[in-house]
Automatic annotation (TrEMBL):
Cellular localisation: Cell membrane
Region (Disordered): 1-23
Name of the protein: CP family cyanate transporter-like MFS transporter
Chain ranges of the Major facilitator superfamily (MFS) profile domain: 31-412
Pfam family, one: MFS_1
Topology of this chain in the membrane: Multi-pass membrane protein
Keywords: Membrane, Transmembrane, Transmembrane helix
Biological source species: Glutamicibacter protophormiae
Transmembrane regions listed in the UniProt entry: 33-57, 69-89, 101-118, 124-146, 158-181, 187-209, 236-257, 269-292, 299-318, 324-344, 356-376, 388-409
Alphabetized PANTHER family for the sequence: 2-NITROIMIDAZOLE TRANSPORTER, PTHR23523
Top-level taxonomic group: Bacteria
Length: 428
């Protein structure tokens, strides 16, 4: 028997579209254009703060002189903030509304990136916490934003969002070390990323200020709590899969440059390789999301999860001179994120139910995933090697393959027709 949350009905455009009456067609077109611009700009900014810091961790540790505990904590802070700030996001959106919550998140992100300019370890930690809390709100809100403004094109817009996110991360990973060398300061190279975030805030502000507050009726979907979804098969599988992909992604984003530098690679080259990994994700996302839009979600999940497994195995077994190969596999494996976000966007029968699933998967997922970057960093420091941490990631990647297989079981036969109808033209 299929649970109600497991069904994927096409959202009603009338219910999802916040635009004013039909005679204001010019206003509606402007609103949709602004919403599309926000998707692109947010995507460009949402991994910049994490990816730029990862490329600069060796230089930051040398400059500020912090020990192994702080070194392990820094790549863990984003995951912890995504968990705990994500828990409050659904309530925040009920209080402020979706768009105003996103504007507040960008204020926090800009402020946090600016705080990291201060030349102390405590300010580096504080700025990271503030910035990552802003990112957490955006992470949870984006599936609902896509569902609200683009109900007929969830696959296409989620793909666009993921592609721009990968592009932003690739840019930040590739040029942060050269910027630090040019400015003679890794902290300045961190703070410079507050500029595009501020620009995004300026674009989001008009939509947030003009957005209408939507008051759900008593007993309506606006009262959805995320926790009962844990009692459903789909809720468990989405949460489990989101947890594993987050653990794998943030472990490799946080530590790949350090792994490669530890094995003898130049820091600039290591940062460029992390950027290359993110670039590989762009065409890979186009491929897997096109498959998903055509009802081949199982094939898309298998491509992403098996590529991630191959990436971690080859990263451990191949010499550092061949590090390009595992980064290609890992870049394809990163497409697990948009696939899970697409599954979240299509969950339930309303924007509020999608928000509940997003809040559940991201809050629980990031709490558990935080174990990865922190414990792996301490373990490698204690053992003086990355071999054991990498084999632990291989084991997690195997489990990810199994969960992806179970989540997508029966997708083609049961849902292909409906998904193609909902996303007509999304893959074109």
């Amino acid at each position: 028997m299929t649970e109600q949350v497991d069904s994927l009905p096409a959202p009603s455009p009338a219910a999802a579209d916040p635009a004013p009456p039909a005679d204001h067609s010019g206003y509606r077109r402007a609103t949709m254009a602004l919403a599309l611009a926000i998707v692109v700009l947010l995507g460009l900014n949402l991994r910049v703060a994490v990816a730029s810091a990862a490329a600069l961790f060796p230089a930051l540790q040398e400059l500020l002189g912090y020990g192994p505990v702080v070194a392990a904590l820094l790549p863990t802070i984003p995951v912890l903030c995504f968990a705990f700030a994500g828990l409050a996001t659904t309530r925040l959106m009920r209080w402020l509304g979706l768009e105003r919550s996103m504007m507040l998140a960008l204020v926090l992100l800009t402020a946090g990136l600016s705080i990291r300019l201060a030349p102390t370890t405590s300010m580096l930690l504080l700025g990271t916490i503030v910035a990552m809390s802003g990112l957490a709100v955006c992470n949870v809100a984006m599936p609902s934003f896509v569902r609200k403004y683009f109900p007929q094109r969830t696959a296409g817009i989620t793909s666009l969002y993921s592609i721009t996110m990968s592009a932003g991360a690739a840019l930040a990973s590739g040029i942060s070390v050269p910027i630090a060398l040019q400015l003679d300061s890794p902290l300045a190279a961190l703070g410079v990323w507050a500029i595009p975030t501020l620009a995004t805030l300026v674009v989001v502000a008009p939509l947030a200020i003009g957005a209408r507050r939507e008051k759900p009726e008593v007993g309506a979907a606006g009262q959805v709590s995320p926790w009962p979804l844990l009692a459903t098969r789909r809720g468990l599988l989405i949460t489990g899969l989101f947890t594993l992909q987050a653990l794998l992604v943030y472990s490799i984003v946080g530590w790949l440059p350090s792994i490669l530098v530890d094995r003898g690679m130049d820091p600039t080259a290591a940062g460029m390789l992390l950027g290359g990994l993110q670039l590989v994700t762009i065409p890979a996302t186009v491929l897997v999301m096109a498959l998903a839009a055509r009802g081949l979600l199982r094939a898309a999940f298998m491509i992403a999860s098996c590529a991630a497994l191959a990436g971690f195995v080859s990263l451990e077994l191949l010499p550092v001179q061949l590090a390009l190969l595992p980064t290609v596999f890992l870049g394809i494996g990163f497409t697990m994120f948009p696939l899970v976000m697409l599954s979240i966007s299509r969950s339930g029968e309303s924007v509020e139910e999608s928000s509940a699933m997003s809040s559940l998967a991201q809050s629980v997922g990031y709490i558990v995933a935080a174990i990865g970057p922190f414990s792996l960093g301490l373990l490698s420091s204690k053992l003086g090697s990355w071999s054991v941490p990498l084999w632990l990631l291989v084991a997690a990647a195997v489990l990810q393959v199994l969960l992806a297989l179970w989540l997508s079981a029966g997708t083609r036969t049961r849902r292909a027709g409906r998904l193609q109808q909902v996303d007509a033209g999304a893959g074109k």
